[in-house]
Specification:
4-stranded mixed sheet; 246 residues; 11 helices; Alpha/beta knot; 7-stranded parallel sheet; alpha/beta
């Protein structure tokens, strides 16, 4: 096995800087390949032979066998692995033009990668495929990938600062959640035009003051149960359901 591959696996920062990440389940590997991502290396032990037989032709020269399952244990993101790890290079799915986009989702300071992944998964289910990231967890971190069940590979994104968000809000009015002052979502959606941004805030703090200050419309989810608040990914799923197809 080539030493430079091992050194790269040891250095998470180098992986990220080169636009690479590790995949260690067959489902997510299949999703990455289907989305056109490049699998640069596939490392496996005996347990992963079926994976190699299925995907080796998608990798080319970068397939390496190790006789020790402990090597896979060392670098896999999950404790119960499937006998392989794949090094994947992300394709460029960064948003560069907004002309043909009608709706987007702004993730405002959402640091929990599991929430980021869950939001993207449910958003894509209802046709929301473009995401603006304002101080969020990295879109291709292993926890985001797992929580999205690989859906993250099929969506578009752009890392933003507040100035860019503010400028974009002139053409895409921001719809922000606000439990105290928001209008019931089912009533508010009748006023929403085709071009808009759904803004979702962090787990503990909600939307930042800056984003809320430029929101065009404030909405809330009314529910009968005696629950103080919904997790941001659960609230997002409801909003996507109500606004999908607008």
């Amino acid at each position: 096995m080539r030493r430079e591959i091992i050194e790269l696996l040891k250095d998470k920062k180098a992986l990220k800087d080169q636009g690479m990440f590790i995949v260690d389940t067959e489902k997510i590997l299949g999703e990455a390949i289907e989305a056109g991502f490049e699998v640069t290396n596939l490392l496996y032990c005996e347990q992963g032979l079926k994976i190699v037989d299925k995907y080796a032709d998608k990798v080319g020269h970068g397939v390496y066998e190790t006789t020790k399952g402990s090597f896979i244990d060392r670098f896999a993101n999950v404790k119960t692995h499937q006998g392989f790890i794949a090094v994947v290079r992300s394709t460029n799915r960064e948003i560069t033009k907004f002309d043909s986009i009608t709706s987007m989702v702004l993730l405002d300071n959402i640091q929990d990668p599991s929430n980021v992944g869950a939001i993207i998964r449910s958003g894509a289910a209802f046709g929301f495929n473009d995401y603006l990231l304002l101080n969020c967890a990295g879109i291709y971190s292993d926890k985001v990938i797992r929580a999205s069940a690989g859906t993250v590979f099929s969506v578009n994104y752009k890392n933003m600062d507040f100035k860019q968000v503010n400028t974009l809000s002139k053409d895409f009015p921001i719809i922000a959640t606000d439990v105290a002052d928001g209008e019931d979502l089912r009533q508010a959606k009748q006023k929403i035009k085709n071009r808009f941004i759904i803004a979702l805030g962090s787990e503990g703090q909600g939307l930042s003051v800056e984003v809320k200050s430029i929101a065009k419309q404030l909405v809330k989810i009314n529910y009968p149960g005696k629950v103080e608040s919904l997790n941001v990914s659960a609230a997002a799923a409801i909003i996507f359901y109500e606004l999908g197809g607008k």
